[in-house]
Amino acid sequence: MTPLNHQEFRRQGHMIIDMLADYYRDIEKYPVRSQVEPGYLRQLIPEDAPDYPEPIETILQDVQRDIVPGLTHWQSPNYFAYFPSSGSIAGFLGEMLSTGFNVVGFNWMASPAATELESIVMDWLGRMLRLPESFLFSGNGGGVIHGTTCEAILCTLVAARDQMLDRVGRDNILRLVVYASDQTHCALQKAAQVAGIHPDNVRVLQTTKLAAFALSPHSLRSAIISDKEAGMIPLFLCATVGTTSSTAVDPVEALCDVAKDYGIWVHVDAAYAGSACICPEFRHFINGLEGATSFSLNAHKWFFTNLDCCCLWTKDPSALVKALSTNPEYLRNGATNSKRVVDYKDWQIALSRRFRAMKLWLVLRSYGVSNLRSFIRRHIEMAKHFEQLIATDKRFEVVVPRNFSTVCFRVSPSAIPKRFYQNSNGHAGHDQNLGYQNGNGSARYDQNVSYQNGTDGARCGQNHSYQSINGGARYDQNVSHQNGNGGAKRDQDLSYQNGNANHDQTLLHQNGGANDKKLQDNEIVNALNSKLLESLNGSGRVFMTHAIVGGVYIIRFAVGASLTEERHVNMAWEVIQQYADAILSTS
């Protein structure tokens, strides 16, 4: 047999397309979140690889029998978790073409079409977003397609770091400071660690419910001034349009004005919400972008381009190239030497790269700007509809303002019977079996206050040192909090280890029993909503995830799956009410 026989490729390819078409036809039959237990697959698959070939028919039978039950179905119309990974026919077929050609376009010569198409579609999308001309190739900026936002933030941070160290000297790396809010994605935390920024030099600035959890320009300026007075060097700000926890929007223009005064590189992360900005009515969310240095969005989230496709633009491509370029003898060629081409290997961490532009090109051409806007508007209208459904039931409340297609809600404290707030020893506890659980039901929190803000197990807190552990976060904190009644303080010594999400706390209260009771009541409300979410997800009928903002546990309802229709939103609401009825009446 030959590994790439065109006739066999045609035969097997048709079989897989047919299988996937049936999968999409029947996708509502599957539980949205996989119901398997850890380690299930090792019991089903042989210990060693086969010595001899097996027919594709047998392999596909095993896929259906063994693999599909272990999938969480991100394309299900009943998927409302995290953020969407909205696929499309064009996105899939573009990925198919890219995989079929299998080119490794690290520089222009390695595949000229791959490089040039990427530059063209990035300018196309940039114009759709009405990005400042300085972010486009036509304005001496430019765009590149990475795999994820994690890569985009790391590359821009490394570029900013080297640019600054060239000015102040390499031995000053421990003085560099990075700024973010407590709602910023943990990708920044990981990027800072990889880039060699000292953990103590990541300033995570507190947000408030009053400001809709947006980063305050005043807080940023105060932190910068404090750092400069201490002899530190402000380096990098990551502002967010559409935070992971609640889709909060940082005030880009005002933050850029502050950063400009101190020569700080501003990266705007619009991984989820950036796609909506192709609609004129949402473009204002990125007003002020001309003051930023770089901007990114994930087309694989809400732009119908199959994973992976993170679009990054920068005003200063030379900073990326200077920080990330390599030019060994075996890669030298006339085109590169001519300085007339882009070598995208110098805009990213890895050398090799995929032909991702192909699928984005197919999406843009197959649907056109008008239809892409309609798809996004339809999702936002469905989110508005879900909000209206919540308003019809006084037991529920929307916790934070909805900006896009994600609604953050919970069972309201006023709807919880008084018996939930009492137990035999007179204080809030977990005798109701209402432990906090994360999105996959595995992590439990035994604590009076939870300060986690992400949906993926990572939290950023103000002036906290932290270290990534297996994709989570560890926090060593000694924080003094000022409360709202007469200046009394609550001092905390908190050591947070991600691991299995166990949290040990020592809480020293100096403000009397009233505040303790408030904290205990809040824990009961949070725990009940956590139990509701786990019940919903355990049913297999829907899948949602959670976050904690301002100490409040919220259930996130993110509309954006390509197959979702209003009937699925209505069904999800019915399921939510059904399980809330059961918990409130029996727990």
Automatic annotation (TrEMBL):
Keywords, sorted A to Z: Decarboxylase, Lyase, Pyridoxal phosphate
GO biological process: amino acid metabolic process; carboxylic acid metabolic process
Alphabetized Pfam families for the sequence: Pyridoxal_deC
Domain of life: Eukaryota
Database matches in InterPro entries: Aromatic_deC, PyrdxlP-dep_de-COase, PyrdxlP-dep_Trfase, PyrdxlP-dep_Trfase_major, PyrdxlP-dep_Trfase_small, Pyridoxal-P_BS
SUPFAM superfamilies assigned to the protein according to its UniProt record, in alphabetical order: PLP-dependent transferases
Molecular function as annotated in GO: carboxy-lyase activity; pyridoxal phosphate binding
Region (Disordered): 422-515
Cofactor(s) in the UniProt record: pyridoxal 5'-phosphate
Biased composition regions of type Polar residues, renumbered to the chain: 434-455, 494-513
Protein's UniProt keywords contain Lyase: yes
Keyword rRNA processing: no
Modified positions (N6-(pyridoxal phosphate)lysine) in chain numbering: 301
PANTHER family recorded: GROUP II PYRIDOXAL-5-PHOSPHATE DECARBOXYLASE, TYROSINE DECARBOXYLASE
Similarity annotation: Belongs to the group II decarboxylase family.
Protein name per the record: Tyrosine/DOPA decarboxylase 2
Taxonomic path: Eukaryota, Viridiplantae, Streptophyta, Embryophyta, Tracheophyta
